[in-house]
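Why does residue order matter? Because the sequence determines the fold. Keep that principle in mind as you read this record.
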Amino acid sequence: MKRTFASDNYSGVHPEIMHALMEANHGHVGSYGADLYTERAQNTFKQYFGDDIEVFFAYNGTGANVLGLNAMTRSFNSIICSDLAHIQVDESTAPEKFLGCKLVTIQTRDGKIYPHEIEEKIQRLDDQHHPQAKVISISQSTEYGTVYSLDQIKAISEVAKKHGLLLHMDGSRISNAVVSLGETFRTATRDAGVDVLSFGGTKNGLMFGEAIVFFTTDLAKDFKYIRKQGMQLHSKMRFIGAQFDALLSTDLWKRNAQHSNKMAKLLAQKLMRFPQLEITQSVDANGVFVKLPPGIVTELQQESFFYIWNEKLSEARLMCSFDTGEDDVENFGKRLEVLLNGGSR
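Structure:
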């Protein structure tokens, strides 16, 4: 099928991951994580983040986020996040249903939230009439494809510690962010003050599977029960473990992220040739956000489908994947040029 710029969820499974799945598909092994594949993957995570972490696997990103936050909160708490955060916009009412918490949002122009804005939302602590702020949740990279710097994450962590709050990171595209920063997984998360990380795999070449990584391990005490109650305990866990081990035991995670980031930069360079267009966000990771003339959107989507992020602004989101090719970018640019010059098929 034709490759698109719709989402990095649209891409298939990386061949090396598919090979790992096939290799794991032999014989009988223990279920629910009692297998060597899961154990090996957990040990691989520890090589990146340190031996004193706890890591659990889940089926999907919503489950990883919601259950990770469940371990960090009680139902009378509130969670401070961007108004574009996945837990606010794209996870339906799963956070509210399973957490019972109030989401307190901060309006953002670049996907990020900043310490002074967070401070304004931390109100009436120890007031029984008011939801009690407990967690700050940030996305890395953000829903706008921007990336928090280490200093920005540390500054948010300092605000959290000052008020006795915890810091959660939605890392559905953490590999893209780490590559963009030129850092390691540990320096970009744990060492920067993150307490719990949702580590994404599906958007970086996996068939399915996410991980919840606890750096503040006291929070993981009852997590095996939370995961089961939340319906994210995968019975044939070996197929998640095998994928993560293949992703992390080599540099596949980096190769995939480097490529998708590179394609986004290439696409942005192509778009900047046209003065009629406006790139609205810094291209830090694997997403490009651009304002398009409304009249060409439908025809351009036929060349390579993409989503309109903001209909009022005619702002499109163009996502690159591990399998996006230079030819995809070139063909999109050629079709765009024809349409901008008044041409049609």
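The chain has 14 helices and eleven strands.
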